[in-house]
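Design a sequence for this backbone.
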């Protein structure tokens, strides 16, 4: 079974690739060079928000480097294509897909794939979305459950790849276990680790000839755009709660509504 992963260049993306590779479920890899992992705060925001911005992304960097230990790609014995964002839907990528002829395609952490590329993909063509669809579609969707004080709605969605952003039929919802002391970035890292394990289990089912059922998304949910997130939203996470929202949830102070999950096993 030939599996192609199209993913980004941040630590969380490399971790998913490493997990598939270690499990023997990665035949070829396309890596999109993503934006700077440790961004600078906008000049236009107030000084206190700049401090929160710097703290937030610094702690994200620290959490991901703690959580994700990945071997250098140069040590991997599979074909690897590195591209910039404008090349993602280019003839270079189209030729790569044709030449590698994958049985399964998985994307994670890349910009939107066009129909000229999607039309080349096999039956099992899925995206890993960093959020629970349909309730948290779009961008920064592991942030918003914390902002809305529902950390137990943090998770990942494996869904069919379509031109509709995070709108394809759902294969599996993956959620991490929450523990006292978990901050927002700890939960995000746990979510990536859990979806990696779940994806390997799903691919094992395919390798044994089992059919994978997909479930249509029954509502449009909420599509968060990059413009929805502002640095001042960080005040809720750090000034109001000091990044201990999980502790408040586990203490029963934030309610107990549970997401209706779709599971592949």
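Sequence:
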């Amino acid at each position: 079974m030939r599996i192609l992963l199209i993913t980004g260049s941040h630590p969380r993306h490399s971790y998913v690739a490493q997990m598939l590779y270690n499990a023997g479920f990665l035949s070829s890899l396309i890596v999109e060079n993503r934006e700077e992992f440790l961004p600078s705060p906008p000049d236009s925001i107030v000084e206190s928000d700049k401090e929160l911005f710097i703290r937030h992304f610094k702690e994200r960097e620290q959490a991901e480097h703690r959580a994700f230990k990945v071997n250098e790609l140069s040590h991997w014995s599979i074909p690897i294509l590195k591209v910039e964002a404008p090349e993602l839907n280019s003839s270079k990528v189209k030729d790569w897909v044709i030449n590698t002829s994958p049985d399964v395609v998985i994307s994670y952490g890349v910009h939107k794939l066009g129909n000229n590329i999607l039309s080349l993909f096999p039956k099992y063509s899925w995206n890993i979305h960093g959020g629970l669809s349909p309730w948290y579609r779009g961008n920064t969707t592991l942030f918003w459950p914390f902002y809305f004080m529902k950390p137990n709605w943090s998770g990942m969605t494996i869904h069919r790849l379509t031109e509709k952003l995070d709108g394809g039929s759902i294969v599996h919802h993956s959620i991490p276990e929450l523990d006292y002391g978990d901050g927002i970035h700890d939960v995000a890292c746990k979510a990536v680790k859990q979806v990696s394990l779940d994806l390997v289990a799903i691919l094992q089912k395919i390798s044994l000839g089992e059919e994978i059922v997909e479930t249509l998304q029954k509502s449009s949910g909420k599509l968060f755009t990059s413009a929805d997130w502002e640095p001042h939203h960080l005040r809720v996470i750090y000034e109001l709660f000091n990044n201990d929202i999980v502790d408040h949830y586990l203490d029963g102070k934030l309610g107990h509504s549970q997401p209706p999950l779709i599971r592949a096993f």
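The chain has a mean pLDDT of 95.
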